[in-house]
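Project standup — Tuesday

K.O.: blocked on the structure for the chain from last sprint. Re-posting the sequence here as requested.
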Amino acid sequence: MSSAIVTAVHDSSAPGAQRFTLPKFGMLVFLASEAMLFAGLIGGYIVLRLAQGPGNWPPPGAPEIGVKIPPTFLNWVMIINTVILLTSSLTYHWGETRMRKGGSGLLGYGLTALFGAIFLGVQAWEWLHLKHEGMWFDTYGTYGSCFFTMTGFHGAHVFLGLLAILLVTWRAILRQMQLFSGQAPTGSHTCEELTGYYWHFVDVVWIFLYSILYVL
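H.V.: unblocked you, prediction finished:
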Protein backbone atom coordinates (compact mmCIF):
# COMPACT_ATOMS: atom_id res chain seq x y z
CA MET A 1 0.00 0.00 0.00
CA SER A 2 2.83 2.41 0.85
CA SER A 3 4.36 1.95 -2.61
CA ALA A 4 1.00 2.80 -4.19
CA ILE A 5 0.80 6.01 -2.17
CA VAL A 6 4.32 7.04 -3.17
CA THR A 7 3.48 6.31 -6.80
CA ALA A 8 0.34 8.44 -6.61
CA VAL A 9 2.28 11.31 -5.09
CA HIS A 10 5.09 11.33 -7.63
CA ASP A 11 3.31 10.19 -10.80
CA SER A 12 1.80 13.22 -12.48
CA SER A 13 -0.56 10.94 -14.41
CA ALA A 14 -2.06 9.40 -11.28
CA PRO A 15 -5.59 10.48 -10.30
CA GLY A 16 -5.49 13.36 -7.85
CA ALA A 17 -1.81 14.05 -8.45
CA GLN A 18 -2.60 17.67 -9.26
CA ARG A 19 -4.38 18.03 -5.91
CA PHE A 20 -1.91 16.35 -3.57
CA THR A 21 1.86 16.15 -3.78
CA LEU A 22 4.55 16.04 -1.13
CA PRO A 23 5.63 19.67 -1.75
CA LYS A 24 2.03 20.87 -1.43
CA PHE A 25 1.51 18.83 1.72
CA GLY A 26 4.73 20.24 3.15
CA MET A 27 3.61 23.79 2.38
CA LEU A 28 0.25 23.20 4.07
CA VAL A 29 1.99 21.88 7.19
CA PHE A 30 4.30 24.91 7.17
CA LEU A 31 1.37 27.30 6.80
CA ALA A 32 -0.44 25.55 9.65
CA SER A 33 2.56 26.16 11.90
CA GLU A 34 2.68 29.79 10.77
CA ALA A 35 -1.02 30.15 11.52
CA MET A 36 -0.36 28.97 15.07
CA LEU A 37 2.43 31.53 15.45
CA PHE A 38 0.20 34.37 14.32
CA ALA A 39 -2.65 33.04 16.48
CA GLY A 40 -0.30 33.18 19.47
CA LEU A 41 0.67 36.76 18.66
CA ILE A 42 -2.94 37.83 18.21
CA GLY A 43 -4.05 36.03 21.37
CA GLY A 44 -1.25 37.62 23.38
CA TYR A 45 -2.17 41.04 22.01
CA ILE A 46 -5.81 40.61 23.01
CA VAL A 47 -4.87 39.53 26.55
CA LEU A 48 -2.47 42.47 27.00
CA ARG A 49 -4.99 44.91 25.60
CA LEU A 50 -7.80 43.73 27.87
CA ALA A 51 -5.45 43.85 30.86
CA GLN A 52 -4.98 47.60 30.34
CA GLY A 53 -8.59 48.27 31.24
CA PRO A 54 -11.15 50.53 29.54
CA GLY A 55 -9.87 53.89 28.35
CA ASN A 56 -6.19 52.97 28.64
CA TRP A 57 -5.70 51.73 25.07
CA PRO A 58 -4.08 53.56 23.45
CA PRO A 59 -2.17 55.11 26.38
CA PRO A 60 -2.57 58.86 26.93
CA GLY A 61 -0.44 60.83 24.48
CA ALA A 62 0.18 57.92 22.11
CA PRO A 63 -0.43 58.44 18.38
CA GLU A 64 -3.89 57.21 17.41
CA ILE A 65 -3.69 54.57 14.68
CA GLY A 66 -7.26 53.32 14.94
CA VAL A 67 -9.79 54.15 12.25
CA LYS A 68 -11.75 57.31 13.01
CA ILE A 69 -14.89 58.89 11.53
CA PRO A 70 -14.10 60.79 9.40
CA PRO A 71 -10.87 58.89 8.60
CA THR A 72 -7.57 60.65 9.16
CA PHE A 73 -4.87 60.83 6.49
CA LEU A 74 -3.05 57.89 8.10
CA ASN A 75 -6.33 55.94 8.15
CA TRP A 76 -6.79 56.47 4.42
CA VAL A 77 -3.20 55.47 3.70
CA MET A 78 -3.57 52.16 5.54
CA ILE A 79 -7.01 51.47 4.06
CA ILE A 80 -5.62 51.93 0.55
CA ASN A 81 -2.55 49.86 1.45
CA THR A 82 -4.79 47.05 2.65
CA VAL A 83 -6.79 47.16 -0.59
CA ILE A 84 -3.51 47.00 -2.54
CA LEU A 85 -2.37 43.89 -0.67
CA LEU A 86 -5.71 42.13 -1.09
CA THR A 87 -5.77 43.05 -4.78
CA SER A 88 -2.39 41.36 -5.13
CA SER A 89 -4.07 38.03 -4.35
CA LEU A 90 -6.45 38.60 -7.25
CA THR A 91 -3.64 39.47 -9.66
CA TYR A 92 -1.68 36.41 -8.55
CA HIS A 93 -4.70 34.18 -9.14
CA TRP A 94 -5.11 35.79 -12.56
CA GLY A 95 -1.48 35.03 -13.36
CA GLU A 96 -1.96 31.40 -12.32
CA THR A 97 -5.09 31.11 -14.44
CA ARG A 98 -3.29 32.48 -17.50
CA MET A 99 -0.37 30.14 -16.89
CA ARG A 100 -2.58 27.05 -16.66
CA LYS A 101 -4.23 28.01 -19.95
CA GLY A 102 -0.88 27.98 -21.71
CA GLY A 103 0.09 31.62 -21.24
CA SER A 104 2.99 33.03 -19.28
CA GLY A 105 1.05 34.75 -16.50
CA LEU A 106 3.68 37.49 -16.61
CA LEU A 107 1.35 40.46 -16.24
CA GLY A 108 -0.49 38.98 -13.27
CA TYR A 109 2.69 37.96 -11.47
CA GLY A 110 4.39 41.26 -12.29
CA LEU A 111 1.48 43.26 -10.88
CA THR A 112 1.53 41.11 -7.75
CA ALA A 113 5.22 41.85 -7.22
CA LEU A 114 4.55 45.56 -7.72
CA PHE A 115 1.65 45.60 -5.25
CA GLY A 116 3.68 43.66 -2.69
CA ALA A 117 6.55 46.14 -2.97
CA ILE A 118 4.13 49.07 -2.61
CA PHE A 119 2.62 47.51 0.51
CA LEU A 120 6.04 47.12 2.13
CA GLY A 121 7.01 50.65 1.14
CA VAL A 122 3.88 52.13 2.69
CA GLN A 123 4.37 50.00 5.80
CA ALA A 124 7.90 51.36 6.15
CA TRP A 125 6.56 54.89 5.71
CA GLU A 126 4.00 54.30 8.46
CA TRP A 127 6.72 53.09 10.83
CA LEU A 128 8.83 56.19 10.15
CA HIS A 129 5.77 58.41 10.58
CA LEU A 130 4.91 56.86 13.94
CA LYS A 131 8.53 57.05 15.08
CA HIS A 132 8.52 60.75 14.20
CA GLU A 133 5.38 61.06 16.35
CA GLY A 134 7.26 59.49 19.27
CA MET A 135 5.96 55.92 19.03
CA TRP A 136 8.44 53.05 18.83
CA PHE A 137 9.11 49.58 20.23
CA ASP A 138 10.22 50.97 23.60
CA THR A 139 7.61 53.70 24.02
CA TYR A 140 4.06 53.62 25.37
CA GLY A 141 4.56 50.22 26.95
CA THR A 142 2.86 47.23 25.38
CA TYR A 143 0.93 49.49 22.98
CA GLY A 144 4.02 50.34 20.96
CA SER A 145 5.81 47.01 21.30
CA CYS A 146 2.73 44.99 20.28
CA PHE A 147 2.01 47.11 17.23
CA PHE A 148 5.54 47.07 15.83
CA THR A 149 6.14 43.41 16.68
CA MET A 150 2.98 42.22 14.95
CA THR A 151 3.25 44.44 11.87
CA GLY A 152 6.98 43.75 11.66
CA PHE A 153 6.50 39.98 11.86
CA HIS A 154 3.88 40.16 9.14
CA GLY A 155 6.03 42.51 7.06
CA ALA A 156 8.90 40.01 7.20
CA HIS A 157 6.56 37.36 5.80
CA VAL A 158 5.45 39.72 3.03
CA PHE A 159 9.11 40.37 2.18
CA LEU A 160 9.85 36.64 1.92
CA GLY A 161 6.73 36.19 -0.19
CA LEU A 162 7.83 39.04 -2.45
CA LEU A 163 11.18 37.32 -3.04
CA ALA A 164 9.32 34.15 -4.06
CA ILE A 165 7.04 36.16 -6.36
CA LEU A 166 10.06 37.75 -8.03
CA LEU A 167 11.29 34.21 -8.76
CA VAL A 168 7.85 33.31 -10.12
CA THR A 169 7.90 36.47 -12.26
CA TRP A 170 11.29 35.51 -13.67
CA ARG A 171 9.94 32.08 -14.57
CA ALA A 172 7.01 33.83 -16.27
CA ILE A 173 9.48 35.91 -18.30
CA LEU A 174 11.15 32.71 -19.48
CA ARG A 175 7.76 31.28 -20.48
CA GLN A 176 6.95 34.49 -22.34
CA MET A 177 10.23 34.17 -24.25
CA GLN A 178 9.23 30.63 -25.21
CA LEU A 179 5.89 31.93 -26.49
CA PHE A 180 7.61 34.66 -28.51
CA SER A 181 9.77 32.00 -30.15
CA GLY A 182 6.70 29.95 -31.07
CA GLN A 183 7.26 27.24 -28.46
CA ALA A 184 4.73 26.00 -25.94
CA PRO A 185 5.78 26.72 -22.33
CA THR A 186 7.08 23.64 -20.55
CA GLY A 187 7.89 22.75 -16.97
CA SER A 188 6.15 22.18 -13.66
CA HIS A 189 3.92 24.78 -12.02
CA THR A 190 4.68 23.62 -8.48
CA CYS A 191 6.73 26.72 -7.66
CA GLU A 192 3.88 29.00 -8.68
CA GLU A 193 1.28 26.98 -6.78
CA LEU A 194 3.27 26.87 -3.53
CA THR A 195 4.05 30.57 -3.74
CA GLY A 196 0.36 31.23 -4.29
CA TYR A 197 -0.58 29.31 -1.13
CA TYR A 198 1.91 31.34 0.87
CA TRP A 199 0.90 34.70 -0.60
CA HIS A 200 -2.82 34.15 -0.06
CA PHE A 201 -2.09 33.07 3.52
CA VAL A 202 -0.12 36.26 4.19
CA ASP A 203 -3.01 38.32 2.81
CA VAL A 204 -5.58 36.56 4.99
CA VAL A 205 -3.41 37.11 8.07
CA TRP A 206 -3.30 40.82 7.29
CA ILE A 207 -7.11 40.98 7.37
CA PHE A 208 -7.02 39.78 10.99
CA LEU A 209 -4.13 42.07 11.94
CA TYR A 210 -5.71 45.10 10.33
CA SER A 211 -9.00 44.37 12.08
CA ILE A 212 -7.56 44.15 15.60
CA LEU A 213 -4.87 46.84 15.27
CA TYR A 214 -6.70 49.50 13.29
CA VAL A 215 -10.44 48.83 13.55
CA LEU A 216 -11.38 47.22 16.87
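K.O.: great, moving the ticket to review. The chain is about 75% helix and 0% strand. The two ends are 51 Å apart (CA to CA).
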